[in-house]
Structures are given as structure tokens and as C-alpha cells.
């Protein structure tokens, strides 16, 4: 019995070419997955250019202690309905912009160190002193004010 061995005559180019076509989807899937993993690792690493603590605090805002309100604002006058309360602000209003939430839905933009305000109804009001930093409003301090009859 005479057996002849037939072998295919293929060049290296055609064999690698057929390999790419045969496994094209798997190669593409591997490249997409590897790119996704590398991008995720970069985004979650510390070297991704994320801001440090000081810079993050400037952007997001530093929530101050509630007791800081008394350091910056002095309130004088009768805490009764219709009485004028006098507010004295101990901040440099020329360097930065400040806002005071009066607790009744009104927001005062502070442009002078002294102003007066009166409350028409009794109740407990939460005063909040805030600073405007790069378009964001940051709480500096807050205080509860009780207005009586």
C-alpha cells in the first residue's frame, strides 16, 4: 500500500492572517476589556490628578463649626416681634463675598459691616453665615435665634 502524505503549502502571512480572522471577536473583546481595566485603574489611583485635601476643601467647601457664628457676627437688640435687631459683621467684606440666611427664607448679601433686621412673627430661626467661594456657598457658622412675643 502506497501512502502519500499531502501537506498544505501555506506561507506565514496566510496562516497569521487566517488566525486573526478566526479569533477576531476574541481579540477585539480582549482589547476592549484591557482598555477598560487600565482606564478604571488610572481613574481610581492616586496619580489620576485628583485634588489633595486642601484643594478639595476649597472646591467642595469647608463646613465650619456651629460656634464660629459668634466669632463673626454680633447680634444686639430686643429679640421680640417687630423689634429691630442690629447685626455687626466682623469679617473683611472687601476681600470675600458673604451671605446670611435669616432663617425665614430671606438671604441677605452682606455688603456693609452693619445692618438691621426685624422678624414679624415669633419662633425659632436658624441663622446661617455663608461665604461664596468660586461660585459655591460654604457654611461658616450657624446659630439659633429665638424671637418672643
Please characterize this protein's 3D structure.
The protein has 149 residues and is an alpha+beta fold. It is 30% helix and 30% strand. It has four helices and seven strands. A four-stranded antiparallel beta sheet has the order 4-3-6-7. A three-stranded antiparallel beta sheet has the order 1-2-5. The mean pLDDT is 80.
Notable features of this structure?
alpha+beta; 4-stranded antiparallel β-sheet; single chain; 7 strands; 149 residues
Count every helix, treating DSSP H or I runs of 4 or more residues as helices. 4
Largest sheet: 4 strands, antiparallel
- Taking the alpha carbons of the first and last residues, their distance comes to 122 Å
Strand line-up across the major sheet: 4-3-6-7
Please trace the helix and strand order, writing H or E for each element.
HHHHEEEEEEE
> Would you tell me the structural class of the helices and strands?
alpha+beta
Shape call? rod-shaped
Q: In percent, how much strand structure appears in the residues? A: 25-35%
| Percentage of residues in helical conformation | 25-40%
- Uncertain spans: none
Average of the residue pLDDT scores: 80
Estimated radius of gyration: 34 Å
Number of strands: 7
Amino acid at each position: 500500500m502506497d501512502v502519500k502524505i499531502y501537506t498544505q503549502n501555506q506561507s506565514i502571512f496566510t496562516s497569521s492572517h487566517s488566525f486573526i480572522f478566526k479569533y477576531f471577536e476574541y481579540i477585539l473583546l480582549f482589547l476592549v476589556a484591557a482598555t477598560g481595566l487600565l482606564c478604571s485603574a488610572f481613574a481610581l489611583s492616586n496619580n489620576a490628578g485628583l485634588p489633595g485635601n486642601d484643594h478639595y476643601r476649597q472646591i467642595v467647601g469647608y463646613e465650619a463649626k456651629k460656634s464660629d457664628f459668634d466669632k463673626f457676627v454680633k447680634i444686639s437688640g430686643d429679640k421680640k416681634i417687630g423689634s429691630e435687631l442690629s447685626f455687626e459683621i466682623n469679617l473683611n467684606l472687601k476681600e470675600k463675598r458673604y451671605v446670611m440666611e435669616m432663617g425665614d427664607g430671606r438671604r441677605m448679601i452682606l455688603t456693609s459691616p452693619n445692618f438691621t433686621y426685624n422678624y414679624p412673627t415669633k419662633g425659632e430661626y436658624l441663622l446661617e453665615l455663608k461665604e461664596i467661594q468660586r461660585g459655591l456657598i460654604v457654611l461658616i457658622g450657624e446659630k439659633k435665634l429665638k424671637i418672643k412675643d
